[in-house]
Amino acid sequence: MRILIPIIFIFCIQEIKAQDTLKTVKGDTLVVDHLEKLGNAYKFTLFKKSYLEKYEYDKSEIQSIISRQNKIIYDRRMEYSAQGIDVGNPNIVAGYEDANKNYTGYKDAGKLTFGASLCFPPAGLATMIICYTTPPSYLNSGIAYDKLNNNDYNKAYMKQTLKIKRKKVLANFIAGSVLFAGIYFVLWQTNPSN
Fold first, then answer.
1. What secondary structure letter does DSSP report for 126?
2. For the CA atoms of the chain, what is the radius of gyration?
3. Are strands 55-58 and 41-46 parallel, antiparallel or unpaired?
4. Neighbours of 110 (CB within 10 A)
5. 3-state secondary structure 12-75
6. How far apart are CA 176 and CA 159, in angstroms?
7. Residue with more model confidence, 146 or 170
8. 3-state class of 191 per DSSP?
9. Which of 1, 149, 178, 187 is 20 to 30 Å from 18 at the Cα level?
10. How do residues 157-194 score in pLDDT, each as one tens digit?
């Protein structure tokens, strides 16, 4: 019995140490185990749950991950700092984060670019250039009206919406052009006159 108690104690300590703390953007705190980084996401199991249940969170959903040794694995603020964003100003950080959560105005520009690229890539290129250079309007930006008077928040929010819109429009142009090329190639290969 004297030997069994220290062995159980050692296993319990190992079980307690094998955990990381993940904080989500929504404010939830999860104790996780078996944390893996997969490109732009993290895959893990919840501590003291079945190891067969794997969860995956995108970086945009994670605020921070702290290891069991209190080392920072991922911190959203460090990522913003690397992009040249003033993390000391909470209004600027809030503007960027709110834009990532609330902005969906890029969808119309993205659909238009994809459709034009799918029909005729040069027309898609022209559409992409127009949508890429045009900043989002305040009406479809999703910005809260009570935040419009906050200059730092407003600038950060609109800068991030432009960045999101540009990324999505470019991705839709590439997708539409590649799909056009694929359809054209298949039709060219199946043409009996060749």
1. H
2. 24
3. antiparallel
4. 22
5. HHHHHHCCEEEEECCCCEEEEEEEEEECCEEEEEECCCCCCCCEEEEHHHEEEEECCCCCEEEE
6. 26
7. 170
8. coil
9. 1
10. 999 999 999 999 999 999 999 999 999 999 888 876 65
Distances (CA, A) of 108 to 8, 27, 88, 166: 60, 31, 34, 12
Asked if 25 and 61 touch (Cβ cutoff 8 Å), the reply is yes
Q: How far is it, in rounded angstroms, from Cα 105 to Cα 139? A: 9
Which contacts of 44-47 are long-range, i.e. CB under 8 A and separated by 24 or more positions? 44/20, 47/18, 47/19
Q: Report the C-alpha gap between 16 and 18 in whole angstroms.
A: 6
DSSP at 84: T
pLDDT in tens, 50-100: 666 777 887 777 878 887 777 877 777 777 776 677 767 788 888 888 888
Q: How many residues does the chain have?
A: 194
Question: Which two structure tokens, joined as six digits, stand for 36?
Answer: 């893996």
